[in-house]
Amino acid sequence: MQKIIQLRLSPQQAADDSAILQQIVEQESIAPATITGFNIIKKSIDARSRTPWINLKLNAYIN
After folding, report:
1. What is the CATH number of the domain that holds 37?
2. Whole-number CA gyration radius for the chain
3. Which of 33, 39, 52, 58 is the most buried (most CB within 10 A)?
4. By C-alpha distance, which of 24, 16, 10 is closest to 53?
């Protein structure tokens, strides 16, 4: 099953695939073994505040 997921991460988290995977698991409340992969559809930077954020739009493959 494919699911579109949007995440807001720090630049360090956005650069680390395991951190992205962990955020998908937390947001969707599923076991890590059920995620077979993900593709980044869109990546943007939100620098309106003092701390910049990375907005990711992902296509996650579950089961």
Report:
1. 3.30.70.2700
2. 12
3. 58
4. 10
